[in-house]
Amino acid sequence: MVSPRSSASRSKAPSKPAASGPGRPKDLGKRAAILDAAKHLFAREGFNGVSMDQIAAEAGVSKLTVYSHFGDKDALFAAAVQAKCEEMLPDTLFELELTGGLRDQLKAIAQAFFALVTSEEAISTHRMMMVPGNIDDKLKQTFWEAGPQRTHDAFAAMLQALVSKGELDIPDVATASAQFFTLIKGEVHARMTCGLCSRPGPVDARQHVDATVDMFLRAYGRR
């Protein structure tokens, strides 16, 4: 049992200053600047064409700061991919509490995904990934888990919740998730990657998204 004297002594003790050192919170502004620089440089120059010195200079920080926040170049690449996906496809898009009907929510997700995969950064990154020997298999897996897999998993979880509510009839949500995003990418993504066409305008993109969502609902809508 603690005595009143010891309790009083504790109450009068001055508060200690916040601890500093390796465990202190990182500067969020610098982290954001590093991620922004990494997103642009990796997309423009490729993974092997970018050094940590370049990223530090672009972000306006020291190379030591870059390593302090992300550890190594592989981890920074994964963080840059994830940040781009979260920027274009925020987690809130997959929440069932959003206002509007199911069709509107699917269209919102489809529009955001189509904008992401047809962006200049995404097309450049895809081309970089396809060059044999450009990056190793481990980094390709890192890219997949940080970007596409995160999106597929979030959408599959949303579909499962909708199945449980009786709003969709899907026997395999993982397959349905893959089908949805493959349909959204469509032929245009492959043609853009090959340099055969430019990014679709807003009207064409909207028509493509609307037709794809309608097809998905015809396949998996509640009967």
Automatic annotation (TrEMBL):
InterPro entries: Homeodomain-like_sf (IPR009057), HTH-type_TetR-like_transc_reg (IPR050109), HTH_TetR (IPR001647), Tet_transcr_reg_TetR-rel_C_sf (IPR036271), TetR_C_Proteobacteria (IPR039536)
Region feature Disordered, mapped onto this chain: 1-27
SUPFAM superfamilies referenced in this protein's UniProt entry, alphabetically: Homeodomain-like (SSF46689), Tetracyclin repressor-like, C-terminal domain (SSF48498)
Keywords assigned: DNA-binding
Signal sequence range: none
DNA-binding region boundaries: 51-70
Protein name: TetR family transcriptional regulator
